[in-house]
Amino acid sequence: MSANIYAIIGLASVLGGAIAISAPAVADEASLREIYEELVEINTTLSVGSCTRAAEAMAARLEAAGMPEAAIHVIVPSEFPAQGNLVAELAGSAASEGAILLLAHIDVVEANPEDWERDPFTLIEEDGYFYGRGTADDKAMAAIFVDLMITYLHEGYRPPRTIKLALTCGEETAHHFNGVEYLVANHRELIEADFAINEGGLGRLDPDGTRVYNGVLAGEKVYQDFRLEIRNPGGHSSRPQRDNAIYRLAAALGRIEAYEFPIEFNSTTRAFFESLAEIETGQAAEDMRAILSTPPDPAALARIKQDPSYNAVLHTTCIATQLDAGHAPNALPQRAAANVNCRIFPGHTQEEILRTLTGVVADDGIDVSFVHSPETVGESPPLTAAIVDPIARVTEELWPGVPVVFSLLAGATDARFLTPHGIPTYGVSGIFADQATRNAHGLNERTRVQSLYEAREFLDRLVRIYARGD
Ligand SMILES: [Zn+2]
Q: How far is 53 from 121, CA to CA, in rounded Å?
């Protein structure tokens, strides 16, 4: 099925008579806001924070709501005492049905209060927005999932499927420690599930606040860092030599800059641009259609690639991100090295990209290698009707006429530790945001107040449909 059909499915349910929209109960909002505030105000940065404190705080809330102690696990690796994780389970009534996993990370990227207009570790509500580090990435989903579990406990809700919650650490610092990777390796049984819901899918708002589409992530590019290193005998800088490590590295980086990986589409990205062609207007819509022809129209492609978000899902991309060279200002450099970060289009291996980069560098004196061992790469999660239809249905219930658009993520989430290991993971949140002002990882990170509460309603309805297991 191509994505357009999904958009049409959305429409069909309108024709089928949309269900009355019930605004989230005020009680739900208050309890959610309280949890959100507690999470945002616990600093969970790698430098000075503690995920363990946040995991314990959420565990205490679940226990207070009546979850049996045996169903709550705070997992703190002995070698990473501040990188604690929480796994909790609401047992289902049908043992034959597999579980669903609600996944959110509780760690956040660094934030220096001096750089922020407001304290990044205080939840501040201002002009219709929540401000604070993690308000967008990823404590909104974490708080919603905890609040839903508490609501289900209060209701005595026992759907056929077991509902599991995992609040993990290390998503932002995977090469230090990653909670999902750790749980898969050491506590697989706790998170075992038929599929998982995770961050990454966002509703798109345009600058005037109109909902454009509800975005769902169905796959992500593969993250890989490569190291380019060249050594040289060096010498005294008063007698410069033609062969200079920094110049040779710079020239190689120039060749990487000039190199473009071939443009390609997979079923997800083709569907993405097909959907956008229906949403966009004028030249943009024409271009979206024109790049889908074979071969893609070069002029349209050149225009579309101007947008870094679109360019990022049209092919593999590699970019220099760090440099490290020379050992003294008055000495010829004996070593020059660079980090090149690649986001690999699905279907290509890290080894293949290593070979391509080595060819582009075209300098036997420069060693091109993996910075970290390549992660297991898997297929994109399957877009089955059982996953897709409920998303389209609830989107239509809450936001009539707003299409669902499936996309490939250029960045990376913890789905990469689950999907290749047999737990297909989908990025879907129902949180509508204007990408430009969301500022995830940036200064003054924020989430729209209305978007948080709406997303709670969206995810609540979605989880209840999935948990029925029919
Ligand atoms: Zn995140």
A: 14
Q: How far is the CA of 442 from the centre of ligand 1 (A)?
A: 12
Closest CA to 269 of 1, 5, 3: 3
Q: Residue 23's pLDDT band (boundaries 50, 70, 90)?
A: very low
CATH of the domain at 79: 3.40.630.10
* Residue where a domain terminates, one of 300, 315, 330: 315
pLDDT digits (tens, 9 = 90+) for 151-164: 999 999 999 999 99
> What is the count of structural domains for the chain?
2
Phi and psi angles of residue 77, each rounded to the nearest 5 degrees, phi first:
-60, 135
Residues 178 and 272 reside in one and the same domain: no
Ligand 1 (ion): residues with CB under 5 Å are 137-138
Ligand 1 center from residue 330 Cα (angstroms): 43
Q: What are the φ/ψ torsions at residue 199 (nearest 5 degrees)?
A: -70, 175
Q: Tokens 């070979």 belong to which residue?
A: 355
Give me the helices (H) in 265-349, please: 267-279, 282-290, 298-304, 308-312
Q: Average pLDDT in the 424-444 region?
A: 92
Q: Is residue 336 part of a domain?
A: no
